[in-house]
Design goal:
Elements: H1 13-43, H2 47-79, H3 81-97, H4 99-102, H5 106-120, H6 123-134, H7 140-169, H8 171-193, H9 219-249, H10 257-282, H11 285-304, H12 309-327, H13 330-337, H14 343-373, H15 376-401
Helix pairs in contact: 1-2, 1-3, 1-6, 1-7, 1-8, 1-9, 2-5, 2-14, 3-5, 3-6, 3-8, 6-7, 6-14, 7-8, 7-10, 9-13, 9-14, 9-15, 10-12, 11-12, 11-15, 14-15
Length: 403
């Protein structure tokens, strides 16, 4: 179908179901960040060992995740977005639960984190494909924003039940509970609500006559890809290192991590509907994302150099609010570049490369900086540099596509 097709009355159910699956997906991937301080305490790791082992545990997920985006997304799209998401939910729930019985060594935890990344790798490409099949271009920031809210919900609420679980019952119990949530909540949402036959779905057997990889001849796609890499350095650097930064760098007691870790993401959650509506109504997504990245970099810099914990949390909250101007727009950029029958694979191509370079490379680099300097504040300067460069990249993108 073309964009002239009439929107379906049931279309908003799709991102609502995707929101549920995305939230539980993110509970699973962020769990290691909350478990890391306890793992460090249990094994008496030094700051250098936390930097080295934490970097391995966090970055290996992104390698598996990125490879799955690249190589499994085209297969999953042919299999069907809904069925592919069903398989993904089962796989990532099982990988999460297995941390409890099998996670006795760092090597075992690293292997399970890699497999978790593979299991979750097709989630966003298939979610993007479903949105492109159900929504016209003018509604896609809002549709993408709804299920991306699942990320913020997970980050905001996760610490409030995961930290007490870890504190009272141990990190292994926490992983078992998360695995059960996948089977009991996420899987029924995908099976019972999702459909991939929307009014903008490609006709059965439709094939694009343009090679997927020909997109690399498009300068706009390169700018989107570079922006995605830099954005992943920013957002994953904060998501994955913030609990350890507060616990070890600012000496926040573990029991207080839930409140202090989640505060920046409360404002981040409020920013998702704001930026989604602004993007759809003004058609200036890249411009607002550029400005947002610049302000995010300033916020992280000021937070790292603040004299009090309250000011650190306040500045990081501002940073995440403005960084989310990009998070609501990134898949809309990709959805605009290629035809509907290529959206799932194209999102996987974009997401895979940006995750490997920005998510894995960026978080590993932060870990190396912490290991080399012994300073968590120095690690955050990697995030500041990425934000400054991304301001320029997204400004160039806006000049090219005006979207």
């Amino acid at each position: 179908m073309t964009e002239a097709a009439a929107p379906s009355a049931i279309r908003w159910r799709m991102p609502a179901a995707l929101l549920i699956a995305t939230a539980i997906n993110w509970f699973d991937r962020s769990a290691m960040s909350l478990a890391l301080p306890k793992l460090a305490e249990e094994n008496a790791w030094t700051t250098a060992e936390i930097g080295a082992n934490g970097g391995r545990l966090i970055s290996i997920f992104f390698i598996g995740y990125g490879l799955a985006n690249l190589f499994l997304s085209p297969i999953a799209e042919r299999f069907g977005p809904r069925r592919a998401l069903m398989v993904s939910v089962v796989a990532f729930s099982l990988c999460t639960a297995l941390n409890a019985p099998l996670g006795a060594t760092v090597s075992a935890l690293v292997a399970l984190r890699f497999l978790l990344g593979v299991a979750e790798g097709i989630h966003f490409p298939m979610a993007s494909a479903i949105v492109s099949r159900w929504f016209p271009l003018g509604e896609r920031s809002r549709a993408n924003g709804i299920y991306i809210m699942g990320v913020q919900i997970a980050v905001v609420t996760g610490p409030f039940f995961m930290v007490p679980l870890i504190d009272h019952f141990g990190w292994r119990t926490m992983f078992l509970v998360l695995g059960a949530l996948g089977f009991l909540v996420a899987l029924p949402a995908v099976v019972g609500i999702l459909r991939d036959d929307g009014p903008y779905a490609p006709q059965p057997g439709a094939r694009s006559d343009v090679s997927l990889f020909s997109v690399f001849r498009n300068g706009s796609y390169w700018l989107v890809l570079i922006a995605g890499i830099l954005s992943n350095v920013i957002i994953y650097g904060l998501l994955t290192w913030l609990p350890t930064y507060l616990a070890k760098g600012r000496n926040v007691p573990f029991a207080d991590l839930a409140a202090d870790t989640s505060i920046p993401f409360w404002l981040g959650a409020a920013s998702i509907p704001f930026w989604a509506v602004v993007g759809d109504k003004t058609n200036r997504r890249a411009l607002f994302a550029s400005i947002g990245c610049g302000i995010a970099g300033i916020g992280v810099y000021l937070g790292a150099h603040a004299s009090s914990l309250i000011m650190t949390v306040a500045f990081l909250s501002i940073a995440i609010f403005f960084q989310n101007a990009y998070q609501t727009a990134e898949f809309a950029f990709v959805q605009r570049i290629l035809p509907p029958e290529r959206v799932g694979a194209a999102t996987g191509l974009y997401n895979g490369m940006s995750i490997i370079a920005g998510g894995a490379g960026g978080t590993a680099l932060i870990g190396k900086v912490v290991e080399a300097t012994g300073s968590y504040d120095s690690g955050l300067m990697v995030v500041v540099a990425a934000a400054a460069i991304n301001l320029v990249v997204l400004a160039l993108l806006y000049r090219r596509i005006k979207y």
